[in-house]
């Protein structure tokens, strides 16, 4: 129940913060999908298999960014709450 109170209290600032982090998360997800799709296509060709493997590594590293983005948003909102 506390979460709803905090959302109402922040008003426009909270909405702006939330939208920015959602956009960042969506961009990250799009890039993850792109790396895995290209990497999968590269696996059809022996000459590109190493490059495909690296794209999978990059995509996997970006998967680790998802919780980092969420934590950054929570910390940012908390700082705004404390200032307000």
TrEMBL record:
In this chain the YrhK domain maps to: 19-72
Superkingdom in the source lineage: Bacteria
Q: Which key words tag this protein in UniProt?
A: Membrane, Transmembrane, Transmembrane helix
**Cited Pfam families:** YrhK
What InterPro entries does the record tag this protein with? YrhK_domain
Q: Where are the transmembrane segments?
A: 21-48, 54-75
Q: What is this protein called?
A: YrhK-like protein
Instruction: Identify the taxonomic lineage of the organism of origin.
Output: Bacteria, Pseudomonadati, Pseudomonadota, Gammaproteobacteria, Enterobacterales
């Amino acid at each position: 129940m506390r979460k709803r109170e905090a959302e109402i209290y922040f008003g426009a600032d909270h909405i702006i913060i939330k939208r920015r982090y959602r956009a960042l998360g969506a961009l990250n997800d799009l890039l993850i999908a792109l790396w895995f799709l290209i990497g999968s296509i590269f696996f059809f060709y022996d000459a590109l298999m190493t490059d495909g493997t690296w794209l999978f590594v990059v995509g996997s590293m970006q998967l680790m960014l998802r919780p980092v983005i969420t934590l950054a948003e929570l910390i940012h909102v908390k700082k705004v709450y404390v200032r307000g």
